[in-house]
Amino acid sequence: MKLNILLALIVVSLGYVTCKNLKKPAETQAQAPYTDPNTFNNSGYEWKSAHISDYNADTAGIKQIKGVPRLVQVPVEKVTPPSTSRKAFMTEGDWHFVGVFQPSDSTIFQNYQDKWLRFRGDQTFDILNARKKVVDSGRWAFDEENFVIYLSCRDPYINNTWAVKERGWVMVWRGNTDLNVTGIQARIECDRGTGH
Q1: Is beta strand 170-174 parallel, antiparallel or unpaired with respect to 185-191?
Q2: Is there a contact between 34 and 42 (Cβ–Cβ < 8 Å)?
Q3: Of the given ranges (14-23, 56-65, 94-103, 137-146), which has the lowest mean pLDDT?
Q4: Distances (CA, A) of 176 to 21, 58, 96, 129
Q5: What's the pLDDT tens digit per position in 49-73?
């Protein structure tokens, strides 16, 4: 019985020492306070990201951060004009957003679901609503060597450069270019019955 009590005391004391050694004070690190996603470069860090906050800024985190992408100047005029076949492909019909994803905002699709794009051969395009009425217009270019589309308009969700993957009449636009740091991915399909 005395041996059992002695063993129990040894186990408890070893457990205490082990737990005490595992607990280390949390290190505090000064981080720039979250202000506005459009001013991430003014935080003292040179992160290229759509949204930076003090909540798990260096991890994948699960916090939803909703914010309008910053409006950037898209250098459409610096891109070589697209080939005739590229113009024909883009102007074949109206393009509709059928799926949009962003890791930091699971509701981003709401800003795209009723938008259609109508490209013209003169490198202009219209943004149409669900009723096919023009709500904005802009200019487009396509870097065929790097497969990047350049869209310049007032709509911050569309205005940017997008890395393009395409298969048939479906394009996937990825918001991870030198200019576009939103991380948004969009699937766009062509409705070929509406060609101009």
Answers
A1: antiparallel
A2: no
A3: 56-65
A4: 44, 18, 21, 26
A5: 554 444 555 555 556 667 788 889 9
CA 138 – CA 115 distance, rounded (Å): 14
The owner of tokens 């100047």 is: 73
118 three-state secondary structure: strand
Average pLDDT value for the chain: 80
Question: Length of the chain in residues, anyone?
Answer: 196
CB 96 within 8 A of CB 194: no
Which amino acid, one-letter code, is at 14?
Answer: L
**pTM of the full predicted structure?**
0.68
Cβ atoms 123, 116 nearer than 8 A = no
Structure tokens at 119: 């490209």
